[in-house]
Amino acid sequence: xxxxxxxxxxxxxxxxxxxxxxxxxxxxxxxxxxxxxxxxxxxxxxxxxxxxxxxxxxxxxxxxxxxxxxxxxxxxxxxxxxxxxxxxxxxxxxxxxxxxxxxxxxxxxxxxxxxxxxxxxxxxxxxxxxxxxxxx
Length: 136
What we know:
There is one protein chain. The protein is mainly alpha-helical and 136 residues long. The chain has a two-stranded antiparallel ribbon with strand order 1-2. Strands 3-4 form a two-stranded antiparallel sheet. A hairpin with a 7-residue loop joins strand 3 and strand 4.
């Protein structure tokens, strides 16, 4: 029986084989891109008193790989569903995706889609520069 290699498995294998110097430069590029993306998302967030934009953050990528996570929402944007109820919802999701009572006001994914190609280009350039430096 053959084992099918998915794109994710191939990427992990390729990243694991990179020299430490290349990984370091790629991580630096990804972290810088994540901070830039977070800034764009903050700027695009609907102005609601500041909590939604303030909830946008960059977190360390802790899955043993290279990268950074950009997140929005969480404790700053969690509200009760109705007054006096214990059930809560994250209004960052309500803003992004909409609800039965509110139209969507996307701010996160449009910003990501606009930056995606730029992030990939920066990462590729960082890897190429690091590989050339390591080869010398």
